[in-house]
Amino acid sequence: MTGFIQLSTGDFYEGILLTNSLEQDLAGEIKCYTQMTGYENVLTNPDYENKIVVFTYPLIGNVGIRAQTFESGKPTIAGAVVYEAADQVFHYQGTCTLQQYLDKWNIPLLSHIDTRAVVKKIREEQNVSCVLTTSMNEKNRRSIAYA
């Protein structure tokens, strides 16, 4: 399914919604994660609670989800944006894919987004919020309410 991320700057990016959990627009504060490893910690870190996290490393989830790396018992993020999410688990302790994990918790995962362009825009503008949506047309492009 096609999904979009629209920034409060007016910029928007089209991608693919990998989870089935975006029944209505999701508005929130956007946070960037630029490291190569540690995505499992971010998903469950209370510092990212209710944030939409943009991961800049091109492939996220290649080792799968390993519960022993969690910061808390369940995910705290509101949504995740990636360029590509691995569709297989490549670590012997991995129990499921990133997509399966987020789908289980009804957290939207938007992929095939130019995450580095999103981060550049966020760094230029500073305090940026965003909306994840499945319908982008001229009417709601102008009227989306940001958190």
Report the CATH topology name: Glucose Oxidase, domain 1
H/E series, N to C? EEEHEEEEHEHEH
**First and last CA, distance:** 24 Å
The CATH homologous superfamily is named Carbamoyl-phosphate synthase small subunit, N-terminal domain
Structural class: alpha/beta
For the record, the CATH architecture stands as 3-Layer(bba) Sandwich
The averaged pLDDT comes out at 89
Number of domains: 1
The poorly predicted ranges are none
- Strand-residue fraction? 25-35%
Binned, the helix content reads 10-25%
Number of helices: 4
Number of strands: 9
Shape: globular
The main sheet comes to: 7 strands, mixed, barrel
Radius of gyration: 14 Å
Specify the CATH class. Alpha Beta
Biggest sheet strand order reads 1-2-8-6-4-3-9
Produce a short descriptive summary.
This protein is α/β, with parallel strands linked by helices and 147 residues long. It contains 4 helices and 9 strands.
Structure characterization notes:
- By secondary structure, the protein is an alpha/beta fold.
- It has a single domain (2-141), classed as 3-Layer(bba) Sandwich (Glucose Oxidase, domain 1), CATH 3.50.30.20.
- Helices cover 20% and strands 27% of the residues.
- It has four helices and nine strands.
- It has helices at residues 39-44, 98-104, 115-125, 138-143, and strands spanning 2-7, 12-17, 26-33, 52-55, 59-60, 79-81, 84-85, 109-111, 129-133.
- Strand 3, helix 1 (39-44) and strand 4 (52-55) form a beta-alpha-beta unit.
- The mean pLDDT is 89.
- Residues 1-133 form the Carbamoyl-phosphate synthase small subunit N-terminal domain.
